């Protein structure tokens, strides 16, 4: 492997670490990449931005040898290179850090780094060599990780560093990171970007795939924008703005800031007292949460995923058993047994946009019109008589909702899985927003949703608030929480970490709370 | 995955499957030194080339419609009901009790009562594995297979020690009274123009066809069917929608067991006219294989 580097030396004259020429790739009738040209200069951080389905991941998969391009050429350090599999990519000096880590949970850091790159059948010499290499890398790039720690004991941010170390240990000169900050706190993300800048300053080339404009602006030297399988533009980051990039991504002007007036909170709609949820292993995930939401306000719950937000939504939405006390408009709602199911919650006036539209919000094999009845199949307006459902009425209602929420294509007979992520989400949102609920539970409303749809969903949320609905918003996107909420609480380790006014707080403060760093525990 | 066009799904897939089945059967027939073409001719002639042959084909069809529907309903709830055989045997017990111990003035009344008995007994036999699945998580495939054997043993015990008339040697009930005789197709007006000889296919065929329509309506036009299908596609999503898993598993399996039990009115009441040991050999599980 060291030889790759030696051979590469005379090539340093080549200006581009990676150059792709005319790359095309189709999956059946879908053209995922159309004649893509991109040149990544050596020693730079190059952002690739685009909406979901724009073809970013396909392009990187071609570069890493997962897919074979239908046509086009790859140049690594100026030399034409064929990359039929990931081993070849590694040999060419390309390393990849996936969105979902590929680590063995019950191995140590050192074992994970060596795994697949052992020198021979006996491990000891490899491990000793790796230990030295890790020590050097850690010192050089602020990549400090305990080599003897088990992966399962590490935080997500540290696990990601192990992935980077794995790539560097394999002599990667070119590092591709796919949506690296999705699971990180703001602090961890900042640390990651410091590491990436350090790597760049040592001459490494970084390709950063993301949909977050802020990360692009803060970190990259150049940025390439993809839209619907084509490369729309490559620009210098200095010379562009988030608005310009958003416009390039979507193909039209986009309002990035949410336009909202001040809230006029009314009576208390939801009151939650000491809510606790245990998971299947009897581990307490929600550890006594109390708060209230008034009519006409949005309470935002910020936090890194997995700190009890899902359990909170599940308990309120009737998906799991809980203990404690909740009242809706003064009426107590049962938290276990009879009357604690999703149907009872809907009857009580709670609508729920679940965090996971694929596993909860939709039946992907069902048609759009069947999905519009999902959770509401008992509604009188959908019944023809005591025996049969009125599918015609249901389809008419579906067409109306698809029209109003601009779900495309507007064919109510298509199965949900045929819609793009954004349009799937709009189906769920259309169904839940149109129920005229008293309380709206909203989990990750814009996860995996393109910018255009985000704008739309945000507007709808504000308009529901202004109609006097009480809204509980759970999101891991801090920007979303800050721009939509009237009050913010941070959730950490199953508890609420204090109430903030979005006007008087900042990402720094919320980020610390998200990491569990606080003076005292406060109730919201 | 791209979906096949509808015509291919409906026509091409079964035809190709049929062709492949013939091909494999032909290889076996060749291996034993016979002419596969000859065998195919005998099969087609025997089953399809005469009204008498059709009389048998339709008789078997009736049984398979019931077991196929039984599998279908459970399958939509993502329950694999392998226990059609046991449920059909218990259905046979229900038919026999109704026919033997209640005096019936006319076959039509006997048919309604026997069908009810068959469905109830079949459903009851499916209820236990269903409950074990819903509440205890015992896998329905395992438990329904086990219940096939239990049903077989139970029937042997009842036929040998309880229901066998005095003086008879074979493990079977007495013949059902003449008033419970179901008209075969050769005894029904209009049908008797085609079926001139006595055939086992009987009026149950019409009930089977009606059942097929009812099952379609249940699955695709009712709230219960909607919930069964939604639950079958995603149990997690069903929980979000407030669909009660226990209720759906129980109802789907009760309907499934009832349909499997209904098969008994075809073979027990319509053909044998007494309950025999092993009245439904392999049919129940054939229903699922056929799917």
What would you note in describing this structure?
- The complex is a heterodimer of chains A (524) and B (291).
- Chain A is α/β, with parallel strands linked by helices and 524 residues long.
- Among the domains of chain A are: 18-93 and 173-250, Rossmann fold (3-Layer(aba) Sandwich), CATH 3.40.50; 268-360 and 436-523, P-loop containing nucleotide triphosphate hydrolases (Rossmann fold, 3-Layer(aba) Sandwich), CATH 3.40.50.300.
- Chain A is 33% helix and 25% strand.
- Chain A has helices spanning 2-8, 56-63, 86-91, 109-114, 124-141, 156-169, 186-201, 213-219, 242-250, 309-316, 342-348, 357-361, 368-372, 391-404, 421-433, 451-466, 478-484, 507-514; strands at 16-27, 30-41, 45-50, 71-76, 79-80, 94-97, 174-178, 205-210, 222-227, 230-236, 268-278, 284-294, 297-302, 323-328, 331-333, 350-353, 439-443, 470-474, 487-492, 495-500.
- In chain A, helix 15 runs parallel beside helix 16 (451-466).
- Residues 1-12 and 520-524 of chain A have low confidence and may be disordered.
- Chain B has 291 residues and is mostly helical.
- Chain B folds into two domains: 1-48; 50-287, no CATH class.
- Chain B is 73% helix and 0% strand.
- Chain B has helices at residues 6-31, 36-48, 51-76, 84-101, 107-136, 140-162, 191-194, 204-221, 223-233, 235-241, 245-272, 283-290.
- In chain B, helix 3 (51-76) packs antiparallel against helix 11 (245-272).
- In chain B, 43% of the residues are buried.
- The A-B interface holds A 28, 317-319, 341-346, 352, 354, 359-366, 370, 373-375, 377-378, 383, 387-389, 391 and B 2, 217, 221-223, 226-227, 229-230, 233-234, 236-237, 239-244.
Helix share, percent of chain A = 25-40%
Which pair of chains has the greatest number of interface residues, and how are they split between the two chains? Answer: A-B, 31 and 19 residues
Order of helix and strand elements from N to C terminus of chain B: HHHHHHHHHHHH
Annotation field: number of helices of chain B = 12
CA radius of gyration of chain B is 20 Å
CA-based shape of chain B: globular
Number of domains as seen in the coordinates of chain B = 2
Distance between the termini of chain B: 21 Å
Q: Considering DSSP H and I runs of 4 or more, what fraction of the residues of chain B is helical?
A: over 70%
Question: How does CATH name the architecture of the domain at 268-360 and 436-523 in chain A?
Answer: 3-Layer(aba) Sandwich
**Alpha-beta classification of chain A:** alpha/beta
Query: In CATH, what is the class of the domain at 268-360 and 436-523 in chain A?
Result: Alpha Beta
Spatially, the strands of the biggest sheet of chain A line up as 6-7-8-3-9-10
Largest sheet of chain B: none
Report the total helices of chain A.
Answer: 18
Rg of chain A (CA only): 25 Å
